[in-house]
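Researcher: I'd like a structural prediction for the single chain below. Treat it as a standalone chain; there are no partners to consider.
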Amino acid sequence: VSSAAGIAAARRLLAAGRTLIWVDNQAQPGGQIWRGGPSSQPSTLAQRWGKELQALLLHPRLKLLPQHAVV
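Model: Treating it as a single chain, here is the predicted structure.
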């Protein structure tokens, strides 16, 4: 979910009253919007979606399973 599309989809599902299980095999930022890596200065887009991501993580109907993968 740590892509912009995944964050937007999670936000919409939670707003619609759905419960979400988020399986994340990479705890660090990665992908297109995070392109510089965790140690670089984040872009404006990455900062915006990072704030959205932090807000999602506090949602009561979101269950986060970090360091897991679906195979």
